[in-house]
Design brief:
Keywords: Membrane, Signal, Transmembrane, Transmembrane helix. The protein is of the alpha+beta class. The chain has 4 helices and 20 strands. The strands form 6 sheets. Strands 3, 4, 6, 7 and 8 form a 5-stranded antiparallel sheet that branches. Strands 9-10-14-13 form a 4-stranded antiparallel sheet, with no helix packed on it. The protein has a 4-stranded antiparallel sheet with strand order 12-11-15-16, with no helix packed on it. The radius of gyration is 59 Å and the shape is elongated. The model is unreliable at about 1-15, about 260-265 and about 340-400 (pLDDT under 50).
């Protein structure tokens, strides 16, 4: 039956914590009265603890602020007292009732506004707490790692008390464990912080003279070299996700305020939810469109191996507008007969020889051009045996102006002789050249 009982206790504690709240009914102002109002069903008497937060705004870092603990008169739910804090300084307020410390909530760091009254503090004299306290390891609070809180007994009245304050979050009393005396670490006890790492934490000390008489220190809880979260639970002190306590009050020197209303937080959550929902709908729509397109779209042709011996069946079908090229119609090759006629019947031997040489060269060039321009024809007339000088019939043919004739074309189909036999020694090749006509002499007259 213990688990249900524990759960019921947690629910009842939460109900008590949220049973009442407080608000600032006046803006914090230098040397002016600060007013608070309790609303809800708390258990009087009520009290408020004002803790300095952040550095001093005065020159030379003069600290004139002290921790203020004020009791509400009797069972009253309202309180007004003079705030002896300089302008542009900050503080955190914690309201409690008879049910426990911090049951009414904790404000965020509130800023003090300026005024013309400076009579409530001495700007050249720093104040100090009634007794100092120490923490070991020094200047740090590590999540779930033991720390020692200690003091000098001669400076304390009664047994010291310690509180943990999280600005804008939970505030709690630090349980005092077994008090021991340790050399070089005075009188004190061991404390295991259950506050999660990254949390801003104020440790406040007091004694029989009141809360906060030992001063306060500001820490940021760390995870340590070997992070350990075994001590942290759902009920561990933390910064609350909702609006901070205290209602509306300035949080900076320019007068910007914070509000206890949760409407802005709800609006942000609603906007975030709407944007997230729209983004999810867009993503789902794109996925559905992609799937439908893949199913209904034209199927891509699958890859096929390439066969160079057999073409693609689709390649054998000519397009509808395909026109086959016309067959090659060979034209007969026309050999132009020589038309050069001799104007004189009497030519000497030298002139005939020169003419024969020119005619032979012309015939040779004509044969070369003919063989290059028409591969079907063979070399015209200029065989190995045709390189001999022409006879006098050439001269008569020039005179007679022969008509153009069609020349027959012989086509020879060669057949493969098959594998060659053993190669026989090559016979010497004979190349015949025409006479150079370099040893011509004039006949004597």
């Amino acid at each position: 039956m213990s688990p249900p009982h524990s759960a019921l206790s947690i629910l009842l504690s939460a109900a008590l914590v949220s049973a009442y709240s407080f608000t600032f009914t006046s803006k914090p102002q230098q040397c002016a009265n600060l007013s608070l109002q309790i609303s809800g069903s708390g258990k009087p008497p009520y009290s408020v603890l004002i803790i300095p937060y952040g550095p001093s705004p005065l020159s030379n870092n003069v600290e004139v602020r002290t921790i203020v603990s004020q009791q509400f008169p009797g069972d009253d739910s309202s309180l007004s007292f003079q705030l002896k804090f300089p302008a542009n300084s900050q503080f955190v307020a914690v309201v409690s009732d008879s049910s426990g410390f911090g049951s009414g909530g904790t404000s965020v760091a509130a800023s003090v506004l300026n005024s013309s009254d400076t009579s409530c503090f001495n700007a050249t004299h720093s104040v100090s707490p009634d007794f100092p306290y120490n923490i070991n390891p020094a200047n740090q609070v590590v999540q779930c790692s033991p720390s020692r809180l200690w003091w000098t007994p001669s400076q304390v009245q009664g047994t010291p008390n310690f509180q943990g304050v999280i600005p804008g979050g939970d505030s709690f009393s630090i349980p005092v464990g077994t008090i021991t005396n340790v050399t070089d670490m005075g009188t004190g006890f061991q404390w295991v912080p259950t506050v999660r790492d990254g949390t801003t934490l104020l440790v406040v000390s007091g004694d029989n003279r009141g809360l906060g008489t030992g001063g306060s220190d500001l820490f940021t809880v760390s995870a340590g070299l070997n992070p350990n979260s075994s001590c942290a639970t759902n009920t561990s002190p933390s910064s609350t996700a909702g609006p901070p306590a205290g209602g509306s009050y300035p949080t900076n020197a320019s007068g910007g305020t914070t509000s206890g209303s949760s409407g802005s937080n709800n609006t942000g959550a609603i906007v975030g939810g709407v944007v997230g929902g729209l983004a999810a709908i867009v993503v789902l729509g794109l996925v559905a469109f992609y799937i439908i397109r893949r199913k209904t779209g034209p199927k891509s042709q699958k890859e096929r191996p390439v066969n160079l011996l057999h073409g693609d069946p689709d390649d054998n079908e000519p397009p509808s507008s395909y026109q086959p090229p016309p067959y090659l119609q060979p034209d007969p090759y026309l050999v132009t007969a020589p038309t050069i006629s001799s104007t004189s019947a009497r030519t000497d031997h030298v002139r005939n020889s020169a003419l024969l040489s020119d005619s032979l060269s012309s015939a040779w060039r004509q044969s070369a051009v003919t063989s290059l321009s028409d591969p079907r024809s063979t070399t015209p007339e200029l065989d190995a045996g045709a390189l001999t000088p022409p006879t006098t019939a050439l001269g008569s043919s020039r005179k007679s102006g022969m008509s153009r004739q069609l020349r027959a074309v012989n086509i020879i189909q060669h057949e493969d002789a098959g594998p060659s036999s053993a190669q026989e020694p090559a016979e010497p090749e004979t190349i015949e050249l025409p006479p150079a006509y370099t040893n011509l002499r004039k006949e004597p007259n």
